[in-house]
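Consider the following input, taken from an annotated entry for Putative glycosyltransferase HI_1696 (Petrimonas mucosa).
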Amino acid sequence: MNFSVVVPVYNRPEEVDELLASLTRQTLKNFEVIIAEDGSVRKCDEVVRKYTSSLPILYFEKPNSGPGETRNVAAARARYDYLIFFDSDCIIPEHYMEKVSSSLAENFVEAYGGPDKALPSFTTVQKAINYSMTSFFTTGGIRGGERSLDKFHPRSFNLGVSRKAFRDLGGYGKMRFGEDIDFSLRLIENGYKTALIPEAYVYHKRRSTYRQFFKQVYNSGIARINLYLSHPDSLKPVHFLPSLFVVAMLLSLFISIFFPYGLLVPALYSSLVLIDATAKNGSLKVGLSSIAAAWTQLFGYGTGFIVAFWKRLILKEGEFKAFEKKFYE
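Applying the prediction step yields:
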């Protein structure tokens, strides 16, 4: 089986360089690469040129329209019958294509997803953010790589899908944030089998500052309510936990004004994160940074969820977005 690797790019030439370099080291060369420049100011055309002799690459530019629409435009140019979507800030382990090929040969599914990990070369903040996105003590859950295959929801930073299924669904929808979850939900609702391939992991850099990370997860909280309005069964009790965390921690801080023991609740949580993150990363520095990352994630997602819940479900207002124009700043 051959694959068409699709990568939407927005102002990330350095990351694309690392991504393409990792693709040249694949043990199986059964793929093409499509780089879609989504209205970037800092283009990656010069970077792509470095790899045209070692990789089959198609590069093109288009006006900015967001990752979902850009993936659709790029997928329309694919030559092969199975698409693989990566985010531009991913680095791909050399065995990736080999593992995916063998997994699909043994158990073919119309769509799959894989976990993400951090490289030792990542910055302390990137390692901390990676921890917060994969930890039991935040909202990481199955993103860390659990082996459940039942109705797995692939995320588009590391997602494969047959071109037939992609076309049948009309590709990604028009949502600016949460478009990958919407796509996964539509796959399952239309009867397509999905799977997690634990060995098909990628090294995902994510955001490089807590400010960028807050904007990302805040929009994810908003997206969860938008997804609920399109897919009512998608909203689960677990999605309320970050909001409950926000309320509980603010209440604890308020109580501590009168009873200092109220500070024990946030202190206990921070201690659990510190111990767990330090053990998993073998670094106290990463452990300390993971406290900030975990609080940023839960407060960002939780407050975005609360605002969207109030505006969309209580006040019945229309869809809205935050940080859209300055998402990467």
